[in-house]
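Q: Structure for this?
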Amino acid sequence: MDALEILKQVNNIFIDILDNDDIVLTSQITANDIDEWDSLTHVQLVVAVEKHFKIRFTATEIREWKNVGEMCYSVQKKLL
Amino acid sequence: MNEITFQSLKRNLKKDFSTLKTTRVAVLADSASQMYVQALRGYGYELGINLEVFEADYDQIELQIYDTTSELYKSKPEYIIVFYSSIKLLKKFAKLSLNDKSTFADNHLISTENLYQTIQCQLKCKVIYFNYHVINDAVFGNFANKTNVSYVYQLRKINYELMNLSQKLKNLFILDLNILQGQYGSEFITDNKIYINTELLLSIDFLPIIAKQTLDIILSIQGKFKKCLILDLDNTIWGGIIGDDGLENIQIGELGIGKAFTEMQLWAKQLKQRGIILAICSKNDEVVAKEPFEKHPDMVLRLEDIAIFVANWNNKADNINYIQRVLNIGFDSMVFLDDNPFERNMVRTHVQGITVPELPEDPADYLNYIRTLNLFETPSFTYEDEKRTVQYQEEAKRAVLQNQFTNEYDFLKSLNMVSLVESFNTFNIPRVAQLTQRSNQFNLRTIRYTDDDIQKIANSTDNITFAFSLSDKYGDYGLISLVILKKGGDKTLFIDTWIMSCRVLKRNMENFVLNTIVKIAIEKDFSEIIGEYLPTLKNSMVKDHYQNLGFEGNGGKWNLKIKNYEPKSCFIEIK
């Protein structure tokens, strides 16, 4: 799966979990840019991304992402 | 049926809670509880209840409970949910010397009781306490069972002693996390990487389950629980179709997959033993349907276990309506099990309020699936509950007798009714408390009391209490009515509670009870009796109760002057 397709699917997950149809993700976006994205909803997002792509992140990986792009890159690595 | 997920529960939080009944609860936990609280409120919406939650800050359980000026007490919760996690308990345990490990459970139980008593000194409320997930800490292997200094030994002891403690302390209720761990597995309950990063202990998929279990307990204490299990026959309690396969070929016991059905029957039989009414609703000839109950050696359920047996070719919704009329309980206190999805849907659509679970396709999976639904939560149990089926069967006989009389007076006279009148005492307190928890219809003020509450009421000289038992020539109804009277300053007696079981409607029991109340009022020199009707969704049958008894309405309350009271007629003798 290519990076763009992953970003698109992650975008749909954000829309569903954060209950906001207007979210448009780019790889630079961080939690500071989206109101509903806080430490609690972050947990939901992580779990939803895992379920959707059928992957599992490690405890360290979920602390390391600085933006959406880095999260998507983690996903891509696990799908190879 | 839409699946319930954490996400769907969260969406509920944005919906309109204003029409729902409010209940105040507090949540105290030593792990992060925010998502549990979200799931709890969201699931409350599903079940029609608005939970107003005071959520203490992280890891403040003792702080909130032992400080009598804390926000916990200010929030005046009706339920306090206490969740100590096993994983933090293990950390405390691990640091102890071997000696201290050996007394860990004993000390923990003492602390638990202290917490409970401290709460009860400040507030009249129920405490819902999570028991402990048994972690295999892999320190002793299976040998953990053979030493008292292992975590496994001490934790199992805590869980066991918590059961005993909750039997002693009536306002303490245990939420059985340990049994859920058995059903779902440790890996399902906790997502380790999330816990390590955030202190959120319970996984997202587990949250709806634990929220529902919490609400099941709260709702049962509030009087919402199931009283009746209605069972289909073919492919539900035996394999095959009795009409086609015949007695020798239906699968129960060792024949075919009979084991699956035998286990269902064993479960139903135990429900009956604990006071759940069993009914049959089957599309079959009645004689054909009854044959296995009468003749098949492997049947666990027999006709005497069934309070109402309905087998005919009518539509099941109509039959369930009939069952409801005979039992006179709400549809929302019934569960209907049927292997056929068409029948399930049809009943769900046409019978408002009844619970109709889906069933897995494979009968081998029925019972395990049903166990996850926790259908039969209850706030109380007494040994008298076992008699409930017999009581409904006796009632059916009275119904037949009644048809033979053309007038009500002659019928009532022919029953030879006798009532035993007692104050609340050690023997009847459990049943009295249970009646306050179960009765919805003939209940003037719908106040729920636990055994402890009733004990306090009985002990206080401010109150006069009456418990009425009734029997007639057909059998014993047991304890069917209770009254709590509070003495007022100005020679008035206030009726705090007046409850009657619906099984004794149309017996003029109300007249007997009022005669009893007036008699004691005269003896103790009271001049006036005051009653109050607090309307609920279920008690409209008693809205004119005081009016019918000759009380005068007075701005929401009703009063009766003793002076010119004429005893009301009834065919009930005092025992």
